[in-house]
Amino acid sequence: MKATHQPSTTGTVTLADLLRCAALYLRRHGWHQGTYYAPTETLTPPACAAGAIGIACAGHTVEHFSQLDADTLADYLATLAAFVDHLDTAYPLFLIDEDGYLIDEHTSPYSWNDDPARTADEVVTALEDAADEWDRLHTEGGENR
């Protein structure tokens, strides 16, 4: 390989990669509750779990995820779903109405993130654990199944 040769960077990015990128973003730029991003003038604001997943998928903040192109939106929704699957197992938080009926059968990543008792470390750990779980379920010997 010559010194000027650039190795290929076209490897497949998995949902686990995107979850790890979201966790890394939160470690580097901070965690936030209440909205996708903390109100700030910086290009890299503190983010909630869903906001960090969005940044991992799009590469930048997005005011509303409906503004994403179809492929990026599909990546965002699939990555968020993988995170929700992990939350359902590791941090179940189901909403029950006043009559005792289940409102939602899945843990809301928004309610979970915004729980006043939640910590930044828990959110980062949950994203990393969700990535490990996705890898365990979808890869075999380091290769996609």
Number of domains: 1
Strand order, biggest sheet? Answer: 1-2
What percentage of the residues does DSSP assign to strands (E)? under 5%
Fraction in helix: 40-55%
- How many runs of DSSP E, i.e. beta strands? 2
Compute the separation of the termini in Å. Answer: 31 Å
Number of helices: 5
Structural class: mainly alpha
InterPro entries: DUF6197
Please tell me about this protein's structure.
It holds the Pfam family DUF6197. This protein is mostly helical. It has one domain (15-134). The chain is 49% helix and 3% strand. The chain is built from five helices and two strands, in the order αααααββ. The protein has a two-stranded antiparallel ribbon with strand order 1-2. The longest helix is centred in the middle third of the chain and has 21 residues, at 70-90. The chain is globular, with a radius of gyration of 17 Å. The model has no long low-confidence stretch (mean pLDDT 86).
